[in-house]
Design brief:
This protein is mostly beta strands. It is 1% helix and 61% strand. The protein has three domains: 172 residues, no CATH class; 93 residues, Immunoglobulin-like (Sandwich); 82 residues, Immunoglobulin-like, CATH 2.60.40. A hairpin with a 4-residue loop joins strand 28 and strand 29.
Length: 354
């Protein structure tokens, strides 16, 4: 790898065609040519000034650690080319940014006087693209969580943030912006609420739940607004939060099937342990079992054997309930299911009778 660290000013074209090159100081070149699978890395708080085109035929250009490129020309990426603009880094150009089947990742900023053309390529924008010209997809895909600001935003095949812009998508385009996502407790239930400040091509939300924060399952699907620039409020009530900690996250899905996840919320069901306490457990046949119902409303106990057959059903008033098992179930393991008056499951435990 060639390391260009001297504070020299060069005028010839920089060819990255025989080895990887890293630039760590301010430099000037006529242009850049990257081929044969090699990589040009520009890193640090420096500026690479170019008076002609950047041509990436087969290789990669990486900007990181706040590095900048000032380009008086076009930035051209072919099918085997790649570009990564990391967060805090920037490309500023007077010409066009042209991607012909390459892969572009923009976590920082690309800005310029010209246009951005993505023809059969993949562009991921988690930062921002700001143009005086147009942004056009020609059979390519533009995705990500960032934003595009341009004189016009169009598709001629392919999608931009999952949206068909063949009739235009205005001058500013962003995917869904989640303004807030929260959960609070009310009446022993978890009330999940979220607000979007804008939506683009949003088909639906899926609210997912987990006991351990690792494995999630869907508990609700809520229709999205498609495309909107207004604040929109959504909510769902989970009638059966887990005892102790429950984890929630949103999966937002576009009309083309692409999706992304929100941050994870943690809900502590602090009352779950005192709402229904069963003791002793295990219990001996013929012994009294005590069930404390800490709710203000009636609950129902349903006792099932391991084959799923209902053995016992008993109403539980608020407060302490004493059940006699003198003539109760035979010894063994049972599933005790507690439900509210709307038949929502409140708690499930395993009860052992000796």
């Amino acid at each position: 790898m060639l390391l260009l660290a001297l504070p020299t000013v060069l005028s010839a074209q920089l060819d990255v065609t025989g080895m990887n090159v890293t630039i760590t100081t301010n430099q000037s070149h006529a242009g850049v040519n990257i081929d044969n699978g090699y990589t040009l890395t520009v890193c640090g708080n420096i500026t690479l000034t170019l008076s002609s085109n950047v041509q990436i035929t087969n290789g990669n250009l990486i900007l990181k650690d706040g590095a900048k490129i000032l380009l008086s020309g076009n930035y051209i990426v072919q099918a085997n080319g790649e570009t990564t603009v990391n967060s805090g880094s920037m490309i500023t150009l007077t010409g066009n940014f042209e991607n012909y089947g390459g892969t572009i990742l923009i976590n920082g900023t690309v800005q310029g006087n010209g246009s951005f053309i993505n023809e059969n390529g993949m562009v991921t924008i988690n930062g921002q693209v700001i143009l005086n010209g147009s942004y056009t997809n020609k059979g390519g895909t533009t995705d990500g969580t960032g934003s595009i600001s341009a004189a016009s935003i169009l598709t001629d095949g392919g999608t931009i943030f999952g949206q068909d812009c063949s009739s235009g998508c205005g001058t500013n385009l962003v995917p869904i912006e989640l303004y807030s996502f929260s959960v609070h407790s009310s009446d022993d239930k978890a009330h999940v609420q979220w607000t979007t400040s804008s939506e683009t091509n949003n088909d639906y939300f899926t609210l997912e739940k987990s006991r351990d924060g690792l494995e999630y399952f869907a508990i609700a699907r809520v229709k999205g607004a498609g495309t909107s620039t207004e604040n929109l409020n959504y909510s769902f009530v989970d009638n059966n939060p887990f005892e102790g900690i429950s984890y929630y996250r949103l999966m937002q899905t576009d009309f083309d099937g692409t999706f992304e996840y929100s941050d994870i919320l943690t809900f502590n069901n602090k009352n779950s342990g005192s709402i229904l306490n069963v003791f002793p457990n295990p219990v001996k046949r013929g012994q009294q079992i005590n069930i404390f119902n800490g709710s203000k409303s009636e609950r129902i106990l349903r006792l099932y054997n391991l084959n799923g057959a209902l053995i016992l059903e008993q109403k539980l008033a608020p407060g302490m309930n004493n059940l006699d098992f003198d003539n109760g179930p035979l010894g063994g393991l049972y599933l005790a299911k507690f439900v509210d008056q709307k038949n929502n499951t409140v708690k499930v435990i395993q009860l052992s009778i000796n």
